[in-house]
């Protein structure tokens, strides 16, 4: 099980990684992230984190151990020294993660999305129901983010 939080990798990177990379947003060719050890091109920090877990397991000579991301997300409210911890960035990250799961995309070594039971069930739904479920999840996220911000401000 892996708890993957690109927000922390992004903030601890001190400007090394573009925010788009951490939020699943397209990168211009001059900002592409390439792993110097494998020469893989990564479209998101999350994918690189999952692949790093696979490579670490492999380096210990373990095989066929699935990596399942059990937690992920983006901080929606931060202090003065955390300008990227916003509800907007959290919504972008979560919506992009949902789309990523629905599109069944991932890093080169990722094997778990196909095996994940919730993903299998989602893929069996007609496209319209998948879109309705996505809209419901987005609405629930917006409501919880707004409630959280109200509690922190109030």
Automatic annotation (TrEMBL):
Signal sequence interval, chain numbering: none
Keyword Hydrolase: yes
Coiled coil: none
Annotated TM spans: none
GO biological process, one term: carbohydrate metabolic process
InterPro entries to which the protein is assigned, alphabetical: GH, Glyco_hydro_17, Glyco_hydro_17_plant
Family classification: Belongs to the glycosyl hydrolase 17 family.
Protein name (database record): glucan endo-1,3-beta-D-glucosidase
Lineage, highest ranks first: Eukaryota, Viridiplantae, Streptophyta, Embryophyta, Tracheophyta
């Amino acid at each position: 099980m892996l708890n993957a939080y690109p927000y922390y990798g992004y903030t601890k990177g001190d400007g090394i990684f573009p925010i788009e990379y951490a939020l699943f947003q397209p990168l211009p060719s001059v900002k592409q992230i390439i792993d110097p050890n494998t020469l893989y091109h990564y479209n998101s920090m999350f994918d690189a984190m999952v692949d790093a877990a696979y490579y670490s397991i492999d380096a210990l000579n373990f095989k066929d151990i699935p990596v399942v991301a059990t937690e992920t997300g983006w901080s929606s409210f931060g202090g003065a020294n955390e300008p990227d911890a916003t509800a907007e960035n959290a919504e972008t990250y979560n919506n992009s993660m949902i789309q990523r799961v629905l599109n069944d995309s991932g890093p080169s070594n990722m094997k778990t999305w196909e095996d994940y039971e919730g993903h299998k069930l989602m893929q069996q739904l007609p496209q319209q129901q998948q879109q309705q479920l996505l809209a419901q999840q987005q609405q629930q996220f917006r409501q919880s983010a707004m409630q959280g911000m109200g509690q922190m401000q109030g």
